[in-house]
Design goal:
The complex is a heterodimer of chains A (238) and B (107). Chain A has 2 domains: 173 residues, no CATH class; 61 residues, no CATH class. Chain A has 12 helices and no strands. The C terminus of chain A is likely disordered. With 107 residues, chain B is mainly alpha-helical. Chain B has 2 domains: 31 residues; 72 residues, no CATH class. Helix content of chain B is 78%, strand content 0%. The model of chain B has no long low-confidence stretch (mean pLDDT 92). Classes of the chains: A mainly alpha (238), B mainly alpha (107). At the A-B interface, helix 1, helix 2, helix 3, helix 4 and helix 5 of A face helix 1, helix 2, helix 3, helix 4 and helix 5 of B.
């Protein structure tokens, strides 16, 4: 069982994610409704898939009459980046039973990954608190997509700056994850690469390619210039 | 799309989304990870966050044009500064939303 303290910590960590999911779940539900999906069908997709951008893409593909195979293949590539997130989380989930890991992994999204990883790195975080973040975020995603499908735009578009909630959250987590000048510098490289790759290769390859190239570059440069880079990485604890 | 086909479609989507989420965690959490891979992985979180967020603030969602005049980018600068100063996730989200709604009014 989970203690009251862990539950509250998990809930407060998840709060920004709920806000962000309301901002994108509502328009997703609206779009799904306009495409002709019933509220039940929309809910089922949000329950089973739980991956925002790929769901938007799938619904627009359904709307344009695509077959299920192209939709499933596209979904696979759009969501392949979770491979990197799952690998990173594994460093913090050693010795957790396989059943719990499977449950946990089903709810790895960009947002739950970033929030949980930042907490793990800071210390005092465990799989139970992380599961609270994951489950409640998933619930927020399902509820907001259903609300969008049933009620339309409940929150007027652009109100309260809510469309910026996830961006602000990512910016903050980016700062928190940049535990040293070295990591921060390579994060900038990755952001620039991501833009350049997107221009050359439209789609979602830019996320994975930029990250893989940057991390490899980081390790290679560290080996090549050990003394130069060493002084620029202090206080790293991962 | 018929309801049966739709169900098959989302089950397929769920499966191909679940497997890349599951396999690294199952494989890696039970064994010693090579030190080289650990070194590589420590660049991943900040890099992937940056790879996700930078295009979303710099590129126009419709045409993919790069522009420094977008409110998403202009608001990102003080938001980043606040995040740096406060180290607070919730506070940064609130400040970012506030600045963005102000930007929508004045820019």
């Amino acid at each position: 069982m989970i203690t009251r303290g862990s539950l509250l910590q998990g809930l407060s960590a998840a709060l920004p994610i709920w806000l962000g999911y309301a901002a994108i779940g509502l328009p997703f539900g609206v779009l799904a409704g306009q495409t002709g999906l019933s509220v039940g069908q929309t809910a089922l997709m949000s329950i089973i898939v739980f991956a925002g951008s790929s769901q938007f893409i799938a619904v627009s593909m359904i709307g344009s009459g695509a077959g299920i195979l192209p939709i499933i293949i596209t979904t696979f590539f759009v969501n392949l980046r979770h491979l990197l997130m799952s690998s990173t989380l594994a460093l913090h989930l050693k010795g957790v039973p396989k059943g719990l890991l499977s449950l946990f992994s089903a709810e790895i999204t960009d947002e739950t990954f970033a929030v949980n990883l930042t907490r793990f790195a800071r210390g005092g975080w465990d799989e139970k608190k992380a599961l609270v973040v994951n489950h409640t975020s998933h619930l927020a995603w399902v509820v907001s997509s259903v609300a969008g499908g049933m009620l339309g735009h409940v929150i007027p578009q652009g109100a309260f700056g809510i469309d910026y909630a996830l961006t602000a959250m990512f910016l903050s987590l980016l700062v928190l994850q940049s535990s040293s000048a070295l990591i921060g510098f390579f994060a900038l490289v990755s952001g620039a690469l991501s833009v350049i790759i997107f221009k050359l290769l439209p789609g979602t390859w830019n996320f994975i390619l930029a990250t893989v190239i940057t991390a490899t570059l980081g390790v290679v440069l560290e080996d090549r210039f050990p003394r130069f880079l060493k002084g620029r990485e202090e206080g790293h604890d991962a | 799309m018929t309801p049966e086909l739709y169900l098959l479609c989302i089950l397929g989507m769920g499966l191909v989304t679940f497997v890349p989420r599951l396999l690294p965690l199952l494989w890696l959490s039970g064994r010693e990870i090579s030190p080289l891979f650990v070194r590589w992985l420590r660049f991943v979180p900040a890099s992937i966050l940056s790879a996700l967020v930078v295009p979303s603030i710099l590129l126009d969602p419709a045409g993919g044009q790069l522009s420094l005049a977008r409110p998403e980018f202009l608001v990102a600068l003080p938001t980043l500064a606040f995040a740096w100063w406060s180290r607070s996730l919730g506070g940064t989200v609130v400040v970012g939303m506030l600045l963005y709604s102000l930007a929508g009014r004045f820019l």
